[in-house]
Amino acid sequence: MNTPAPEDDLSLAAIRQQYQRLLQRLEANEHEFRRLARSVWRVQEDERRRLARELHDGIGQNLTALKHRLVQVGHDRDGAQLDPEQRAHLEAALTLCDDTLQDTRQLSRLLRPPVLDDLGLEPALRWLARSQGEASGLSIEVEVEPLPELDNDLQTLLFRIAQEALNNVARHASAREVLLRLVARGPHLQLQVVDDGDGCEADKAFGSGGSGLGGMRERLRLHGGRLELHSSPGNGTRLRAVVPLDSPG
């Protein structure tokens, strides 16, 4: 058996050190990438919050004032006997104003629902299920077990995952009933969205990157979490998002 020459031992030690340095550099780069990506994500959410407030407080209030002016015009003109054509134009203007005001408020809530900032994640999830159910005809049950205190990032992350998942069910699953469930298990949070729809081949769905799955998976990865999809054709779908309570910085 040949004994390694001293210079060979030195070479192996140098290679190990270089490998360790490269590994540490990769880990530092990954850490920095996640930190920057999460910062960008926060900026996007702040911008959503600003736009939602502008829609609600700016455009929404202007539309409300316009509606009141139109109503007042109708009252003022009653003494002058509006003819049928004028009455029809006024009623059409009021209907358009009402529809636009409703669309503006809905868009504001979808951008950043005030209930998420004012009351927290559980009321926001219940509002989301109720509004999505009314819009899509789905029967959506919500189960939320007692949770520890969550920071804003985690609450926003889980709300966005639930929002995207319910949108997918409404658009693609042909489901009738959905269960939205959020629990804490040990050091992790688990958000599940289970439907009784058409189902799909989970591997192909993940591989295609469609239906927002890629975006959900990347958001979770930035917080040290993961996305699971359990489904088969004809047997519904169970989407599960798992994220640590103490997300890596």
From TrEMBL:
Keywords: 4Fe-4S, Cytoplasm, Iron, Iron-sulfur, Kinase, Metal-binding, Transferase, Two-component regulatory system. SMART domains: HATPase_c. The keyword 4Fe-4S applies. Residues 50-247 form the Histidine kinase domain. PROSITE patterns: HIS_KIN. Gene3D superfamilies: 1.20.5.1930, Histidine kinase-like ATPase, C-terminal domain. It comes from the Bacteria. It is an enzyme of class 2 (transferase). Its cofactor is [4Fe-4S] cluster. One of its GO terms (molecular function) is phosphorelay sensor kinase activity. Its EC number is 2.7.13.3. It catalyses: ATP + protein L-histidine = ADP + protein N-phospho-L-histidine. It is found in: Cytoplasm. GO terms for cellular component: cytoplasm; membrane. InterPro entries: HATPase_C_sf (IPR036890), HATPase_dom (IPR003594), His_kinase_dom (IPR005467), Sensor_HK_TwoCompSys (IPR050482), Sig_transdc_His_kin-like_C (IPR004358), Sig_transdc_His_kin_sub3_dim/P (IPR011712). Member of the two-component regulatory system NreB/NreC involved in the control of dissimilatory nitrate/nitrite reduction in response to oxygen. NreB functions as a direct oxygen sensor histidine kinase which is autophosphorylated, in the absence of oxygen, probably at the conserved histidine residue, and transfers its phosphate group probably to a conserved aspartate residue of NreC. NreB/NreC activates the expression of the nitrate (narGHJI) and nitrite (nir) reductase operons, as well as the putative nitrate transporter gene narT. This is Oxygen sensor histidine kinase NreB. It comes from Marilutibacter alkalisoli.
